[in-house]
Amino acid sequence: MKLTSEQKQEIAEQQAQKYETKRVTSPELEKILYEAIPVLDHGFVRVIDYMGDDTSIVQSARVSYGKGTKKVSTDEGLIKYLMRHWHSTPFEMCEIKYHVKLPIFIARQWIRHRTANVNEYSARYSILDKEFYIPSKEQLSAQSTINRQGRGDLITGDQANEVLKILKDDATRTYDNYEKMLNEKFDGTTIDKDKKGLARELARMNLTLNSYTQWYWKTDLLNLLNFLFLRADKHAQFEIRAYAEVMLETVKKWVPITHAAFLDYRVGAVHVSAKGKKVIQLMAQGKKISFEDSNLSKREWNELMTSFDFAEKIV
Amino acid sequence: MKLTSEQKQEIAEQQAQKYETKRVTSPELEKILYEAIPVLDHGFVRVIDYMGDDTSIVQSARVSYGKGTKKVSTDEGLIKYLMRHWHSTPFEMCEIKYHVKLPIFIARQWIRHRTANVNEYSARYSILDKEFYIPSKEQLSAQSTINRQGRGDLITGDQANEVLKILKDDATRTYDNYEKMLNEKFDGTTIDKDKKGLARELARMNLTLNSYTQWYWKTDLLNLLNFLFLRADKHAQFEIRAYAEVMLETVKKWVPITHAAFLDYRVGAVHVSAKGKKVIQLMAQGKKISFEDSNLSKREWNELMTSFDFAEKIV
Amino acid sequence: MKLTSEQKQEIAEQQAQKYETKRVTSPELEKILYEAIPVLDHGFVRVIDYMGDDTSIVQSARVSYGKGTKKVSTDEGLIKYLMRHWHSTPFEMCEIKYHVKLPIFIARQWIRHRTANVNEYSARYSILDKEFYIPSKEQLSAQSTINRQGRGDLITGDQANEVLKILKDDATRTYDNYEKMLNEKFDGTTIDKDKKGLARELARMNLTLNSYTQWYWKTDLLNLLNFLFLRADKHAQFEIRAYAEVMLETVKKWVPITHAAFLDYRVGAVHVSAKGKKVIQLMAQGKKISFEDSNLSKREWNELMTSFDFAEKIV
Amino acid sequence: MKLTSEQKQEIAEQQAQKYETKRVTSPELEKILYEAIPVLDHGFVRVIDYMGDDTSIVQSARVSYGKGTKKVSTDEGLIKYLMRHWHSTPFEMCEIKYHVKLPIFIARQWIRHRTANVNEYSARYSILDKEFYIPSKEQLSAQSTINRQGRGDLITGDQANEVLKILKDDATRTYDNYEKMLNEKFDGTTIDKDKKGLARELARMNLTLNSYTQWYWKTDLLNLLNFLFLRADKHAQFEIRAYAEVMLETVKKWVPITHAAFLDYRVGAVHVSAKGKKVIQLMAQGKKISFEDSNLSKREWNELMTSFDFAEKIV
Fold first, then answer.
1. pLDDT digits (tens, 9 = 90+) for C206-243
2. Which of A231, A241, A266, A299 is catalytic?
């Protein structure tokens, strides 16, 4: 992640702000406000603003005139209850705004979460930064042979070097040609004063999908947790998970009670189908139950055993 | 509006809060934070929390690293431009949360604005306050004879007294019977210790639609302005307009530049159809144009003349 | 449920419609299209229109040029997979529209599901029907003593009669006064030709919350299933559950494969928290685990035992 | 636009479908159902399904038991009224589903319209087609010098050839390298049997933004009109406008009355600010009003004059 000195200066100025407010504040989140937390090779996540804290959830659930309660233990009990029973509206009462820099192919996954407000850097209007995501060698995985939507073994040796060379060369060449068509360098200098530049809204089409873009992204706590549930999960693509994990840490600082309840009732939870429930019932009663008797498909059986870390998987 | 001493105390405690924050603040809005602003006979609007100010709109539109700009004049120009050209996403970057007490029949109109977060006081769970909306004599209008969805002349004299008596008596009686069925007074005292009380989720059905409810209502600035455009308008029902007008004043305190642009480009603006445009073009060129030549319906013609305060209406 | 002869005629005309279409159709749903299925004492649910069927889900998930597949077994496997793994977007590709008549206090619960399109009968514009919901004696429950948001034992005998009398009398009286203030009967006849009538938007406030309203309600299959998951559940208020159960039957006719997957992976499923998972793991391994060792709250322990129909509840 | 023979066959089969339905149908739209209407060099728009027609809007607005009315003239009057007065919910009662093939940089603009359901072809799961958008020479515009977000004069001659060569070469090379990294051709043949292929979710990042993707996109009529208002407008980028214009024609076939009202009250309409209204009032009264006296900014003045095709622009 490279920030220009001007950008560093702007961030430092924001961090130096001190205002007095009657609004509730989240002291731990305040500490990292505006900070650019690095993600991947050139990306970042910055918390820009927030509204509410754990007590706001309680306050709204109770439709109270004042703060939720004055006792943390009571607040905690209610928040856990709300999370366990899938109450949604109280968690919508907290809001957060991020500034994120991320590769375009990840932005395209991310934007599918519709219940958020977004302002993206416009490549119709401005020139994109000369930055592309190149995976580290630890992330250079082959296509999975068992999961059509996942990664398998690492690619190593010459083939790995070849892949990395392709990614770097192609991104660099297409970017250089982007500048050439624009007749303008990314720093704003004109290349050939006797030529016009192609319209920005056209030239951008030559960039590769690992080019970095950036946006302001604002959402409420409920939708943020839904996003993190899917994107901080091990089935999510590594590159978006990297962002989700950083954001999950910001949630911990912001609303620690809600964060703990989220880990217990969502992230670490298991969802068992009606048929799967019968299998678990028999097992808990000490009865033998085999895949053949389970009425589950092989895939369902294995997913059930995996979710409880039971050994009885079949091939 | 009656607040219990406990409620007053809770509000006073919130107003006495002083926290330090790095977030942007809106000084004028801070002054009235948590205050219960009276609306109608027993309702109120309270601003509970907010996120962002005018500079946040500029910051997001520019996807900048720091604040929008340092010059207010530049910010103002951009906000006016965004409003004029119907840019929506930058205005979604500010968020506000209200606590509102309002009659149920107004709550039913209000809730049709879906892009908001709501936590309403639950009459399945708790007993509603003994408060109903009774219109003032100045609001006791007859059905309009020209607009099937509006009010006409005032009802006065004996008939007005009769209407007010009906409204008071019916609301009081149904509320008394609500308590009777619950076997519990609104202050929590049991009526007959040897009887059970009807389930709250059932008993509430006996209440009239002018009973007061309350909710936390949170939305972003764009959707708030859409709400206010429709509900602070003279075609809106008086009772919801009373809330909208109070809220419009909170917008003025919160984001004064946006508020001014909203008045100019939305509230005071005129929308002219393609056919209406031809009429205006001819008029501006000093040509005579009559209804008969306008290709407009009588209703459209009159709406057009009214919107520009022109006298050429027809009957 | 009373329909006027004019309404019956209109419905019969729709049911007699026969058009040719290239769109996919759902033969079982076609059979009951437009039919008014009775709910509660005066309500109904009518399916007015729909778009897509089970194959549309498969088609969208595959982004295929033609129908999903030609083999029902393959479609079924994919739909089950999508449901099990919480894929949401393919289920959004089917849409349904209902015409519903329902008591206002239930309409207020229902409308909290925001991701739907609604057109409600306007009591600003028209006079509401003279119909109110009066519970049957089997539904006249006392407030639950263990669940602040539920029903307990039945109220019987004189107290039941008294409750029913209150509900009928108050609804009738407030409706009669509604007509009186309007100076107009529900059938449109003027009461006193020398008087004006109060504006409809005002007079309606005198009605009780068990008055019936009606609306067109349109949503996609995903959001319909979310609605039914919450509202066809035994914790939902009986009155809204009555509607949800009728609608669940229409889903079975419309998209039978999705309906079956919904029962298995949602309605009959169990959600186990991270802490609860440890308890189940020990039980399945034949180990004794008591509440005291479980790290669960008493409430959580009992909910876990109940969800698996295990006997080990504690008091 | 190239369709494989298998795709053509699938489309032909859908077009040959004939079902009987009681639902309303739109005869003109039925005629082009499933047809791939070409857009740009390799894209298309296909209408896959729809729900409702003009009468559905009337039916919902009236919350009627049968069809809207039986008289087309009455329906037309109501639809025009609803459009003129910004009633939104009745237009939400019609739904349409498209299958669209489009360049990724256009998909990124398009997806910002959030109130729609989308299933996109997954490049995590499958290999993208070897097709990229290359603008025609008539579209090869230079960056506008007066509008930072638009196109200016055409680029011609050698420079045009050079731009086209860059776009073709870079898209081809990055696609070839995409296949190389995947170790698999777009037709599914393995390149080197002794090598693994890079995970698809990674390899895709090497593609350029003019690569074609495809999706199912479903929305209601209100949101479709909002989309078309912005994207069929002359300020929209040419490439997305090409799609919007084709879609606008499908709206004309589907709901002709609504389409006509949309052209009159939206597409051809003029929005005049409060300050602008005063200028128009004076002009219509035959009074001279100069920019200096108008209280408008130069930009506003020119926008106002342009919107009415008045000559009084200033430099």
1. 999 999 999 999 999 999 999 999 999 999 999 999 99
2. A231
Is some CB atom of chain A closer than 8 A to the CB atom of B33? yes
d(CA C60, CA C221): 13
Band of pLDDT at residue C165, cut at 50, 70 and 90:
very high
Domain ranges of chain B: 5-129+210-267, 137-206, 274-307
Summarised one tens digit per residue, pLDDT across range A193-252 is: 999 999 999 999 999 999 999 999 999 999 999 999 999 999 999 999 999 999 999 999
CATH number corresponding to B5-129+210-267:
3.30.1360.170
Instruction: Answer whether residue C60 shows pLDDT above 80.
Output: yes
CA D92-D97-D102 angle, to 5 degrees, is 120
- CA separation for the pair A62, B105 (Å, rounded): 22
CB-nearest to C19 from D23, D51, D89 is D23
Dihedral, CA atoms, D51, D54, D55, D57, nearest 10 degrees? Answer: 80
Find the helix or strand (DSSP H, E) in which C119 lies.
Answer: strand C117-120
CA distance C27 to C265: 25
First to last CA, chain C: 45
Q: Do C24 and D13 touch (CB under 8 A)?
A: no
CA distance B225 to chain D (A): 15
Check residues D177 and B312 and name the one with the higher pLDDT: D177
Matching CATH number, D5-128+210-267, of 3.40.50.2000, 3.20.20.70, 3.30.70.1170, 3.30.1360.170: 3.30.1360.170
Q: How far apart are CA D165 and CA D172, in angstroms?
A: 10
* Active site annotation includes B62: no
- The CATH code of the domain at C5-127+212-267 is 3.30.1360.170
Query: Neighbouring chains of C at 3+ CB pairs within 8 Å?
Result: A, B, D
Q: What is the mean pLDDT of chain C?
A: 94
pLDDT higher than 90, residue A312? no
Q: Is B165 on the interface with D (CB under 8 A)?
A: no
Structure tokens at D198: 């890079």
Query: Which residue of D264, D309, D310 is in closest CB contact with B273?
Result: D264
Spans of chain D below 70 pLDDT: 68-70
**Whole-number percent of chain A with pLDDT over 70:** 99
Nearest by Cα to B211 from B163, B164, B181, B178: B178
Q: Determine the average pLDDT of the residues in C61-85.
A: 84
Find the CB nearest B272 among D89, D269, D274.
D269
Which residue out of C46, C200, C204, C231 is catalytically annotated?
Answer: C231
pLDDT > 90 in chain C, percent: 88
> Nearest CB to B22: which of A33, A65, A97?
A33
pLDDT of residue C69: 59
- Nearest C-alpha in C relative to D58: C119
Q: How far is A112 from chain C (nearest CA, A)?
A: 10
C-proximal residues of B, 86-105, CB under 8 Å: 103-105
Q: Which two tokens stand for residue A158?
A: 């010459």
Cβ separation A269–C264 shorter than 8 A: no
